[in-house]
Amino acid sequence: MTADVFEYFRSGARPTLRGLACLHGAARSPRIQVRSKNGLAEYRRRNEETALDFYRRVVRRTTPDETSAAALAPEEPCWAALCRGDVALAPGSTVYALRGSTFDASVLTRITASDMVAALAER
Question: How far is CA 95 from its chain centroid?
Fold first, then answer.
């Protein structure tokens, strides 16, 4: 059984939280911001891009449309997936934060990793 478990994880079939976040972002929005230690990369869905092509470009981190030193705080409600919950979000936003979140649950909707997976189920 242990060999089967190792093979499962080695296969790449198991989605990562980053992959799930990129999938939700590409399906929900024409604009995605990705933070890293080097700053911010912004991706905007191009007219000819399908949601799947947009997802692939974001998850591979290729050809951002814009880069900057820091993320801007959104002024309108958004959907956010964060490693660190240290970004100011507009009231009404939905957020997944892996750690360090001080978000006010009375103005934001907090989601879990299992919520992200469950939202992918067929309806």
Answer: 10
Task: Give the domain ranges of the chain.
Answer: 15-118
Structure letter (DSSP) for residue 51: H
Q: What is the C-alpha to C-alpha distance for residues 20 and 46, in angstroms, rounded to an integer?
A: 21
> Strands, E, within the chain: which ranges?
31-36, 39-44, 66-68, 79-84, 94-99, 109-110
d(CA 20, CA 117): 7
DSSP-derived pairing of the beta strands 39-44 and 31-36: antiparallel
CA–CA dist 1, 77 (Å, integer): 45
Of 1, 46, 7, 11, the closest CA to residue 26 belongs to 46
Tens of pLDDT along the chain (123 residues)?
A: 566 656 666 666 677 888 999 999 999 899 998 888 888 889 999 999 999 999 999 999 988 999 888 666 778 888 888 888 888 888 998 888 888 677 888 889 999 889 988 888 755
